[in-house]
Design goal:
Elements (H helix, E strand, L loop, with lengths): L6 H10 L20 H6 L5 H12 L5 E7 L2 H10 L4 H15 L5 H4 L1 E4 L4 H7 L3 H9 L2 E2 L3 E3 L11 H7 L4 E3 L1 H6 L6 E7 L4 H12 L5 E8 L7
Parallel strand pairs: 1-7, 2-3, 2-6, 6-7
Antiparallel strand pairs: 4-5
The protein binds zinc ion.
Zinc ion binds next to helix 2.
Length: about 230
């Protein structure tokens, strides 16, 4: 896109044009949230080499199947930023809808109980919502908060691959109440917003497997393109 709004103008545009494209701000008639078709075309589906890379990571873990929606390139980054301006909750659900559209051919995205990667209670209270849980809602079907965060670990952003792995050790636990409602033969699909090293999803899957769950998949809306992956 050659013509872009300044961020504050975008924020203003959302106030007066609530049915605007989350990326470029053009009105979308009859829709409460979304991307115009031009911007939709600018989203990059995940690169095959990144998806292969993730499949290799999870091959040695408790995750059976894995699917990512998009490359977290400049366009997606911009969209995620813009999503914060107006109705963040609804927009997170929209991310899940995007993911569902993108990965509709993956059978496991249809039949599973979706388990969002939890935030620590303190973090969730501060933010007011868990983005992964809203994304799971956008994907549809059944959502269960089967996992909880036992430890409020520091954010992964500045850590390398090995540090990320250590940072997520022991941070997840099974919610005993939810466990009673979900049989161990239920197919589960973990949901995260952005998958980076795969350490978080693997740690979460190991906890589910440790509780007896046998059919565990995982999905994320996007993955960043980072050199230290390989
Ligand atoms: Zn647009």
């Amino acid at each position: 896109l050659s013509i872009r709004f300044k961020p504050w103008l975008e924020a203003l545009a959302y106030l007066v044009l609530p049915n605007a494209c989350v990326y470029c701000g053009v009105p979308i008639p009859g829709s409460d949230v979304g991307l115009c078709s031009a911007c939709h075309h600018e989203l990059e589906p995940v690169s095959p080499e990144y998806e292969e890379h993730y499949k290799a990571i999870v091959a040695s873990s408790s995750i059976n199947q894995f699917a990512i929606g998009f490359n977290y390139g400049p366009v997606f980054q911009e969209i995620l930023e813009n999503l914060k301006y107006n109705n963040a909750r609804r927009n997170a659900i929209f991310l899940g809808e995007l993911l569902r559209q993108q990965r509709l051919s993956d059978a496991f995205c249809k039949q599973h109980v979706f388990v969002p990667i939890p935030l620590h209670r303190k973090k969730e209270r501060k933010r007011g919502y868990n983005q992964a849980a809203l994304i799971a809602r956008g994907i549809g079907a059944t959502v269960s908060n089967l996992l909880m965060r036992a430890i409020n670990n520091p954010t992964q952003t500045k850590l390398d691959k090995e540090q990320r792995k250590a940072n997520v050790e022991g941070i997840f636990a099974i919610d005993p109440q939810q466990r009673l409602t979900i049989a161990t033969d239920t197919p589960l699909c973990l949901v995260d917003d952005v998958a980076t090293s795969g350490a978080t999803l693997n740690a979460a899957a190991d906890v589910l497997a440790g509780a007896g769950y046998r059919d565990i998949s995982a999905t994320a809306v996007a993955t960043p393109i980072m050199d230290d992956f390989f």
